[in-house]
Amino acid sequence: MSVAWFIIVSLLWTSALAGGASLLTNGRINARFAQTVWRGAALLAVLPLLIVPLLSLMPAELPSALPDLPYVEPAAGAVSTASASLQSAVSGPEWNWTAPALLGVLIAGWLGRAVFFLLGQARLQRLKSRSRPIDATIDNLSLTLQGFERVPALRQIEGGSPFVAGILDRAIYVPQGLETPGDLRQIVIHECVHVRRGDLVTRPIERLVADIFWFSPFAWMMRRELDFWREAVCDEIASNLSGDRIGYARTLAYAARLSAPTRALPVAAFILPRKSALPKRLSRLLEGGPTRSRPGVAIAASVFALSLAPFALAEAGKEAPLRIENAGVKDVEFSHAVINSPKARISSRFGKRPDPFSNTIKWHKGTDIAAPKGTPVYTPSCGTVVFSGYKVNYGETIEIAFSDGSHMRFAQLADRDVEVGEEVAVGTQIGTVGMSGRATGPHLHLEHWTITKDKDGISKLKPSDPSKSEGLVLMAGG
Hints:
By secondary structure, the chain is an alpha+beta fold. It has helices spanning 3-24, 31-45, 47-56, 73-89, 98-129, 141-145, 181-197, 199-206, 208-212, 217-242, 245-259, 277-287, 295-307, 309-315; strands at 132-133, 153-157, 163-165, 171-175, 339-340, 345-348, 351-354, 361-364, 367-370, 376-378, 383-391, 395-401, 407-416, 423-424, 429-433, 443-453, 459-464, 475-476. Strand 12 and strand 13 (407-416) form a beta hairpin. It is elongated.
């Protein structure tokens, strides 16, 4: 996967997921349902990262590709266009620095996120070390209903928002000014709900989406929404357990005044840093009334999002196969050289080879003919142009169908001189040599897809070695 592909697909993917989750959680919605939707969006956001390692497990020698997926055509078009535009813009040798530069920026961003996390942890530990015990008695009935045998230790901090921290030795930290029994009770119930629901473990995992995709504003939107709905769910449960919704809302508002301005800590805090979150939480508490969930819509959205996974897999390194058209009408005769130049040479043959970018052994589906940029490329036989455009990694590409049903793909072109639907005669110049895709220098990438039958007798197009195609002359001396 190229760095440019990773950035573009991540931006489009996270924007689609964030937009869909926003639609599903708009209005007076059930908090638990909303949290589930945003959790699903964050989980699906990392799907492209999970697909690429799976690709590496697939045998490299299998030249067959994924089937056409017309149901994802709109999404495929959007991602392909964006990816193709970027790759086309930086395909020249003068732009070779862009890939390492983008990779450097990505790594710097990840390192920055790690530094911010460590600084947050250091601030949290400093705050905890300066805290003092609070000697107070809390009504344990509501907590007993949650399965707590005792109230976690209470400790006072100088300022900030109430929070709970600690895995083995948990404690609830409360800022000065919230010492009344009523306020302490509401805070303790809220923080114990966090503990009971496992938020001390799930919160750091959920927030990773913005650390991984730090360059995507939509990933940060997911993080903010996850933080809000986590607290909204706890508000609903805690206010019901306390039996005093108005008192709970009063404590929430009072804690917000004391803790302003709130500084973010790597914990589930009672008050969120964003000012817009408090009015929304208070509104949900005070308005009451029925809330609705949309399980049918959520399931449909999830199925749609998952249906895009095959496309992400295809974009990560697989190409859709060529269609079999007019198979077996008559034999094809090759009577013209593909390249006619004394400077042409074979630079990479069909079959297994070390990938020039990753240095891993991969299957090369064609033959590369190195030649000066602008060298004419000819069709070796008459046929019909079935594709003329840009393909990811292939660059400017032309595909021609011959009378026997086989197809020939001419890729890495600098120019394309024919369009889809044209009938081309033998020896027609269809383009010129270039390096418009994933390439280390000017060359023609030539693939010959021939009809073969599998063990079930089904005819399929699979790439074969162009140098072994009967009568095909790859290059002549000029």
